[in-house]
Amino acid sequence: MKAIVAAELDPTFRDELAEKMKSLDFANCLACGACTAGCAFSDLHPDNDPRKMLRKVILGMREEILRDPFIWYCTMCERCTVECPMCVNIAAVTRAIRGNFRTDSPGFLQKVVDDTIRSGNQMDVQPDEYMETLEWLQEELQAELGDPDYRIPIDVEGADFLFGFNAREVKYYPNELQNILKIFYAAGANYTLSSQKWDATNLALFSGKDEDFWKITEPMLQEVVRLKTKELVVTECGHAFRSVRWGYRTFWKGPQFPIRSILEVLDEWIQQGRIKLDPTKNPEPVTLHDPCNLVRKEGVVEPQRRVLKAAVMDFREMFPNGRWNYCCGAGGGALAMPEYTEQRLIKGKRKVDQLLATGAKIVAIPCHNCMDQFNDLNKHYKLGMKMEHICSIVERALIMPEKKPKV
Amino acid sequence: MRLQYSPNIRIVEMPCSGTIDHRVLLQAFEDGADGVFVAGCMEGDCHFQKGNYRAKKRVNAVKKLLDEIGMGGERLEMYNLSAAMGPRFAEIANEMTERIRRLGPNPLKKQSAETTEKEGDVA
Amino acid sequence: MIIAQQKPIKDIAAMIADCKKVLLVGCAGCVTVCLSGGEKETEVLASSLRIMRRLQGNPLETVTYTATRQCDPEYIETLENLVKDVDAVVSLACGVGVQYLAERFHDKWVVPAQNTMFVGGSTAHGVWEERCGLCGDCILHRTGGICPIIRCSKSILNGPCGGSQYGKCEISKDVDCAWQLIYDRMKALGKLDKLLEIQPPKDWSKSRDGGPRKAIREDVMIG
Amino acid sequence: MVGAGIAGIQASLDLAESGYLVYLVESSPAIGGTMPMLDKTFPTNDCSMCILSPKLVECGRHLNIKTYTCADVVDVQGEPGNFTVIIRQRPRYVDVDKCKGCGECAEACPIDVPSEFDQGIGERKAIYKPYAQAFPNAYVIDKENCIECGACEEACQAGAIDHSMEEETIELNVGAVVLCPGFQKFDPSQLTYYGYGKYPNVLTSLEFERILSASGPFQGHLVRPYDKKEPRRIAWIQCVGSRNCRIDHGYCSSVCCMYAIKEAVIAKEHSKEPLETTIFYMDMRTYGKGFEKYYNRAKDEQGVRFIRSRIYEISEVEDESKNLRIRYANEDGTISEEEFDLVVLSVGLEPSPGVMELCRKLGLTLNKYGFAEPAPLTGVGTNKPGIFVAGAFSAPKDIPETVMQASAAAGASASLLAEARGTLVKEKEFPPEKDVSGQAPRIGVFVCHCGVNIGSVVNVPEVVEMARNLPNVVYAGEYLYACSQDSQAAMKQIIEEYGLNRVVVASCSPRTHKPLFQETVREAGLNRALFEMANIRDQCSWVHMHEPDKATEKAKDLVKMVVAKAALLEPIPQVAAGVTKAALVIGGGVSGMTSALSLADLGYRVHLVEKEQQLGGVARRIRHGLKGEEVQSFLNDLVAKVMSHPNIEVHAGTEIQAVAGYVGNFITTLTNGKELQHGVVIIATGGVEYKPTEYLYGESDRVFTQLELEEALVAGDPRIENAKTFVLIQCVGSREPERPYCSRVCCGKSVKLALKLKEKNPSANVFVLYRDIRTYGFLEDYYQEARRKGVFFIRYNLENKPLVEKEDGSLKVTVTDHVLGVPVVIEADVIGLAAAIVAPESNRQLSQLFKVPLNEDGFFLEAHMKLRPVDFTSEGIFMAGLAHGPKNLEENIAQAKAAAGRASTILSKDHLESHGVVAVVQQDKCAACLTCVRLCPYNAPKIRNYAAEIEPLLCQGCGTCAGECPNKAITLQGYKDHMQMSMSKALFREV
Lengths: 407, 123, 223, 991
Known about the structure:
Low-confidence stretches of chain C: none
Number of domains of chain C: 2
Number of helices of chain C: 7
CATH topology of the largest domain in chain D: FAD/NAD(P)-binding domain
Distance between the termini of chain D: 54 Å
Number of strands of chain C: 7
GO molecular function, one term (chain A): oxidoreductase activity
Strand content of chain D: 15-25%
Mean pLDDT of chain C: 91
Number of strands of chain D: 51
Radius of gyration of chain C: 22 Å
CATH architecture of the largest domain in chain D: 3-Layer(bba) Sandwich
CATH superfamily of the largest domain in chain D: FAD/NAD(P)-binding domain
Strand content of chain C: 15-25%
Oligomer: heterotetramer
Low-confidence stretches of chain D: none
Radius of gyration of chain D: 30 Å
CATH superfamily of the largest domain in chain C: Response regulator
InterPro entries (chain C): DUF5981 (IPR022026)
CATH class of the largest domain in chain D: Alpha Beta
CATH topology of the largest domain in chain C: Rossmann fold
Mean pLDDT of chain D: 91
Structural class of chain C: alpha/beta
CATH class of the largest domain in chain C: Alpha Beta
Keywords (chain A): 4Fe-4S, Electron transport, Iron, Iron-sulfur, Metal-binding, Transport
Shape of chain C: elongated
Protein name (chain C): Methylene-tetrahydrofolate reductase C terminal
Largest interface: B-D, 39 and 48 residues
Number of domains of chain D: 7
Pfam families (chain C): DUF5981
Largest sheet of chain D: 5 strands, parallel
Strand order of the largest sheet of chain D: 14-21-15-16-17
Largest sheet of chain C: 4 strands, parallel
Number of helices of chain D: 25
Structural class of chain D: alpha/beta
């Protein structure tokens, strides 16, 4: 990097950013180095030191920031500043810069956002395709459950909760959706899906453009009002859960209602005995990955552990975990940026070391983005492990009730 | 500051180096001391203005006398240091002990044939 | 007062080389005032001699005493029992003291530790200068209080000799020319004319040239 | 006095000595506060207990101080001069007067609980005494853990235990209240990422102090509580609970940097094997007097590693060693990972909830962090007249500043109650002095262990055995702490029992402890001079640590010598001298004027001497205080008060010509010929701004010093008005080899200037180039405000200083950015240099006149850096303000009031007793040779009727005349030649 000429510095950049973020906390930075140490990846490859990026912002080095690779390398996992003594939030700064200043959005991140705005879901699944898949699933379940008049509740008003899920569960992994619905059935859940807006994911969380973000997430929240459900439950997907919760806290002006993760609901059902599990169905050692959006940013830590302990024989924690977990390397929309795949796999090494240390055979991963990353790591580092969602593990251990519960 | 220095030193406390008297110095040698040094304040800093100057004059007079009578003047020395200079005191203590080790025990002892083990480990 | 300076210690030691036990006697008179023979100097001398002799393998025993003055019989009477078993007495007094001890203790060998120098006074602490030659016939009233006998190197009565430069005597630039001083003083007092009177040769019989002198005061003699 | 830490003790002593009755209310069972828990104190490395215990005993035994322990203030009503205070005293279940502190009860008690004093590492019984030298020297029962088994009651021969005691409510009527309840240490368990409470090898700094301390759970042997192993690598983590906005602790706790360095240095001293010590920090804040040298010595000579990096988290290694691993970022961004056996968290200071509750009840305004910050520019005042604050309760601060604020609070309270002085106090009566003349010497030898300070090196029993058969010795005994209250009582009893007429104590330095033992000897009816000390600690155990047998040998010799001298000691009569009830204050700056006003309010005449024509000093050039106070208006009304005060006589345009006399009876002549009579002196000669030679100062009119910049800014100088880029450079002249000290105020001032510049022109670019930003205490908030307002802070180091060049008419500053590691080139319109504060040349001359020492940097050297920061060693002379060393206006004002408070302890007395060690002439031996008259610097000897005579009150006891009297007519009492000769004789004579 060449010498900095003070005259060329642009202090107004700092104020513009603060106005966009509606907070000046980042200016408190003491350049103390805690975030550099906290970032799990700052020493794995160049341009990944949060302190250096923030320094450029504070000095007002507009050009440098507009071409600093850090902005796209950062997985926005917030580990660096979770305990920053000066209340700086590097992820928020990165996101604001991405959305308001950068024009070189990599890969197909922006394309996916545009598709989502247009089609309402991330995979551009057309409404008829969506309805056919549900019908197909309904038939499968009627056979599997041996209950001919089993129906998937769609647009049922006044249910306990609306279930929002990930477009991948329709497009590529309907079987996973099947498992979920089977569990709902076993628990006699009073829920509904929506025909209009069902995909809770939102890549604009990573692109940083708030207008795009709200265009995508607001309809999801409006569905809850339209269908008059008591709460919104989101499937095992980190950034989907984060999007609706963050959107709700930041932009939502409508009526108030709780938003919970499916893991919290499963945990509740198990505590209440509404579903019974047989852990012997999952004999192999299982470890749990804590997705940053679900665990560190949204604070859901214990429910998934209780669920797993009820569903498997040998549950092993990896270290560090919970609020201090390492990011899997694919956060911040990295999967939509093929040109940084190599950095993503280098970042994943730290997670691989954790997995090997536990000696587990199965990795429970309550997040779709993380799932793709873990599958890549499985292949790249030849781990030979099974990567599963918690619902698949729970479904395997499920003890179906004899008679058909009232719907 | 707990600086370590040679344990061969015995200290006689005086309110000011100006209190020292020729006879006390000579008496020390006669009683068997191998070496004596007077530690006074820095020149010009004497709390009593002239105490340490007078002490230096008297010490030099006795040094000359010790040469004349064959005891050797190097066994007596005057040093100037302030109360705040702990390291300097330790340095002096070690320096003086080395000098006296080089000079050997008090010649009066050889004469009176009874050896006291005060300086037992002297090479 | 009488000014005395201690002899080098080697000389003193030589005088008592054969003695086993000596008595050292200080004097609290003139030699204390000129810092050469008081109790402190006496004990320093004693200690030095003891160390010196022990170093030579011939230890010396010393007894010390400081008399109020050594030039009055009564003050040295108290030494009676101290001198009994000593081989010699070392006196730190002026020459008078040494002789008094010798006279009083005729069976004892008495040696001087001092060189009695002159009669004078201190001009600074530790610096003494000669002022009076004890000539027995004082002429200071003729020279404005400055004695040419002592302060002029040639003791001339009708100076100056003409050898002085810038008021200093030709023998040494540290010595003032007495007559320069006399001249300046008489000039200041406006009595220069008195210097014109020629002084006759001095009657030295009043000085020690007439043999040792005696001063008698009938009026105060006892018995 | 609410709170009996060092602040409460100092303020109580000052007030009691000035003629006021003091009620000292302490919530814990013993006075002393936090200081007794510390092992050593910086920067002198004195053992904390050793410098505190004389004050503990003095305060404990003082007739005019009533101490209430286990007591809390519940309410205060009334107005200044007439407050009613309700205090609630919790039951102690032990009668303080009966309890001898023998400890039998604790032996018998079956219950072991973690000791609060030892921070939970060591243990104590349910019935316990907080620490060995505690005052009151009595036990207390902790009812929560006591199982009422009655074992203690049986064991106690003194019948002091009374389980039926109840809580009492006591009402006190007082004129003024001083709040000094101290602080609470931050509990780091709330910062989970440090793992305190989870990982056994993560300790707080106070726990580490207990481990280091000789009276601690491991007797000073440095081991880990976890597995009692000796650690090889220890890390200190700074700013734990300080400079942290996330938990509303944004302030800096001011003391942690220094105590961390001290702990590292002392830890190295305690470990036989080489010990690796590392300190992780952000800014090394060693701003006090002597601190920078202490830091440099630790860094350059003692091998303490300093790593500038704030720690993100601590993790534990898997194996059972439970060592700790720290992953940290270096300054260039690279990551390092190291393993440590022990991690010490330098926890900050915070106000304790209970105290904040009391303040709310009293209507005291607290700042946003809950501290009772004093009203601006008062040093100790609060928003409630008559209620003053002192110590860490008003702001996190170091012990010297606490002691200064305590003396200031005492001074302020005294001036509030000037008329009531002396009304409620009792004089100290001593038993009649026994006449020992003619008796054969009967010597008692008391040998001290001083905990392990002596006992661990010198074989004390052997020394006692040897002492027992020394000539004239009739008693010899050993004591764990000779200076503690119970040993003192035992000493008195033994003097009685054995009919001793000489006392020898073999313990520590006479400088700190001789007066204490002499007081006890005097209380047993013996003249103070019949006492002598052998220093077997500073001269033996401390300096021959690794040669115990030689140290024991030497200790025996020292005792032999002192016993020989003791046999020859004679009683010395005390001589009393009157006190002129007036003070001389030198220097008319803010400090001088504040001291003068405080003393004048106390009713004493004050002569204020100022060499300039008008008062004000350097404060004339300061516009705003660090917290934005209007300094000029404050200064003008201060000058007005001084000029109009009936008790103050101002002597402007004159200096000190000559000084004569001694404490209570000074006579000073001024250059204008006036002669002043006064009892005390306060030197407040201020400081001078260093004229820089660096950074093109003087070669360009755009390079200012801070004071010049402030003046230009206020005057609307065009060079400032239309300037766009400002560069402020710190440490100009300070922290350099020629001036190895920190000028302390420049960081605060630069931050304030930067804020002012930004306020005047928000689009201006303001750069501050610094080595360490030392905005200690609540100044840290301004540093944060400056960063938020866009001031650029760039750090440089000694090897890579900023380069200032003149380039075709404009100034170019080049400095390397400390984060990005690339040079930053700045076209500066204005450069402000933080020039050092240096001592004025006149200090050297004043030091000669008053015979008071200067330190190497030219500032005046106080009697004791920690506990006597405003006194000189010579009695009756005090100092205040920049003359003592660089500090800000607020601190100078506190020190000025402290100096006045200390001076009033002398002026309030009608007569002073001379300390007795004076020279005496034996007239019949005197030859009137004038040696003594010529030598004595104090003109004490005069020739009267043909012999010398020494005026005892003028004689300072230096002994120069005695050493040179040709006929040994003069002897110095207590140090006669034959005494010294007897010591050398005893040394070499075989027993």
